[in-house]
Structure formats: C-alpha cells, structure tokens
Amino acid sequence: MNSIPAAARPLALVYFLFATALFAQEAGPVDDFDAVWETVAEYYVDGDFGGVSWESMRDEYRPRVQNAPDAEGAYRVIGEMLGRLENDDTFIIPPAVVPELASAAAAPREEEYAGVGVMITEFREVGVVVTGTFRESPAEKAGVLAGDTIIAVDGEPLVEEEGTQGVADRVRGPVGTEVTLTLRDPDGEDRDITITRGRIDLRPSVDARVIRPGIGYIRLPAITVDLVQQASRALPSLLSTQGIALDLRGIGSGTPEAMVVLAQWFLGPTPLGTIITREERFPIPHRPDAIAAYRGPVVVITDSRTSGVAEVLAKVLREYNRASVIGATTRGGSQVAQIVPLPSGGLLHLVIARYVTPKGTVLHTEGIEPDVALPPPDLATIRAGDDPYLDRAEEIIRRGGRL
C-alpha cells in the first residue's frame, strides 16, 4: 500500500531538520546513521521494534559505522541494523545508488520495449519458466512454448539468484539484435532457439469477460483507478453470471482508492478497515452510498506473488463472507511505507503504518492462507494450457460458492 496517512506527513520534515543542522558540513554515513536511528525511533510502526532494544542499537552500530573502511561498508552496517527489525520493507538506499534510481524514474515511460515477448515466472526447484507468449511476438513465432524452462541465455547458464528480473534483463536488448535461449521442455529435452528481438506492446490491459458458460472472470495487472475503471465497463456483461472468479495472482501493486472501488462492487457501503500508525488510526474512506453491483458467489485466486492491496482485498472479501480464497499463500507486505531523504542524499524506506481488517486483524508481513490450498501447476499442465486454479474456482461457483 502506498497511500500515506495525513499524520505521517511530518516525516517530510525529517530531512529538513537534519539538513539544516548539517548545512555547514559535508554529510556522510555517520550523519545518515544518526538520521536513520532517530527517524526509526520516532516513526517506525512498531514501538517495540520487533522485540529489539532500539536504544542499544545506536551504541552497538554507530561505532561500527564510524570505523567502517569505506562508505560502502558503512551503509552495509546501517542495513544490518535495520535488518534487526526483521521487516523487509524497512531498508536504506545508499546515496551512491540514488542517482541510478532517479535516472530510471526520470526516463520517459515507454509502452513498448525491445524483447522477445515471453511471460515468465519462477518455480521452486525448477527455475524460470515460460508461462505464455505475447500474441504475434518474436518468441511465439520462433516456437517458444508455455512450460519451457529457460536454462541459459546466449550460452550463459542461469544462476538461482537471478530470478525472473535477472532473466528479463538478459533477454532484453536493442531491436533487431538476436538472443539465443536454451530451453528445457517438460520431458527434459533441451533445445536452443535464436530469436530476433522486437518491440513488445506492454500496455496494461484488463481481462474481464465470461470465460465459460455462467462463469465470469476478472483479471487486472494491477489494482489502479484506471484499470478498475476499465474493468467496470465489462461489469454489466458479468451481472447475470453464476459466479465470478477474481484473479489476483501476481498482483503486487495498486492503490487503496482503487481497492475500495473494487471491493464495493461486491460489498456495497461497508467499512473496509483502518490504517494504523504507532499513535493513530485512520479509517479507510469508503462511499456510504455505494451499491453492491454483484451479489453472486465470488472466488478469489491468489498465489505467492499476491501482495499489498490485493491481499487486503482478498482478506476483506473473505471476512465479510463474500468470497472464498483459493490458490497459494500470499507474499505478505500489507504495509504503508514512507521514503525519507537522508542528509547525504541517501534514502530510508520506512514502514510507518499497517492495515487492520474490519474485524480487527492486523496484517503484518506474513501472507494470507487460502481456504483451499492448491499446488503450483506442473510444467506439463502449463504446456497444455490448463489452469487448475481456475478449474477449482469454477467447481466452487457451480456449487453456489460452497467449498
């Protein structure tokens, strides 16, 4: 969740206060350490700091920052201190890294990129697997198939640490250049395919339609206001369905505002929980005049990449008995974070609030367990184009929503 409660806005003053105090001298890692320690002490969401003595952290880690051989080592020590909070969403970005992030943010956002047009995901104990190809893409034309595991790019084997992002970075390149993928099919046979890179249209699109007789389906790439509005145009065609499968697999971004709109399609004018900081609680705004447009059974599909507002949506719908949740345990991460500038130009990414469900459940970093846990599909199933998650959702809908 990335919407900041009004009470959190004083965090913006943190940088001003430190920068003013240090204006006459060049800021360095020690100054950043002091800023980080003070900011966490004042604003971190958990006043118990995960069970550690935050006061003692200053005495333990400040000398280590002072005595670090170089700036890189000093920021590693600060990162180690923040790691004691055991919250992956609270971390430091050293000043040396910030210019790269700024350049990426300032670059024009293109709707196309130079690649081959594969959709990939990472499967435990298998690797990075092709789950599909874009229509008319170079990969489709070259014969890349769902269920293929990518084991090398241009002859260089993949390493486990790369993950999907590392593979994507290696596959991308200038339009018109070639890349060779070494693929392993579900039967264990390897083959090399050389593909000429092309521009791939990545504009986000919504899939909202009747996919099987009586079965509605809604899939958004992210829960944003624009995409929810796109989906709303298809909603009238789904009103007469026997039930709707709401597919939240892979969704890791979105806004609370959009989540509220989507939730009220199924709930109407219902309270949707609160955001809590260390000191205050802020009800999530909802429209008291909202009308539940759809009243049939809903099945929410999740996987290990579902996080943020998608988790909140799944939890709310289940708490109000409006949906069953099937699939895999979600990633966790329903937290509100603030980016705080540091004196040297670095950044602190700090969790300042958490979500509390309408029934009072605080969502921490652990994920949401489904009502029906399903294993990831095997490669042969992916190759066949089958979707056992969607099949199970249909079964539940056919039974009137009963598990």
How would you portray this structure in words?
The protein folds into three domains: 98 residues, Transcription Regulator spoIIAA, CATH 3.30.750; 88 residues, Pdz3 Domain, CATH 2.30.42; 175 residues, 2-enoyl-CoA Hydratase, Chain A, domain 1, CATH 3.90.226.10. Helix content is 32%, strand content 24%. It is built from twelve helices and 20 strands. Strands 1, 13, 14, 17, 18 and 19 form a six-stranded antiparallel beta sheet that branches. Strands 3, 4, 5, 6, 7 and 8 form a six-stranded antiparallel beta sheet that branches. Helix 2 packs antiparallel against helix 3, helix 2 runs parallel beside helix 4 and helix 3 packs antiparallel against helix 4. It is globular, with a radius of gyration of 24 Å. It starts with 11 loop residues before the first helix and ends in a 5-residue tail after the last helix.
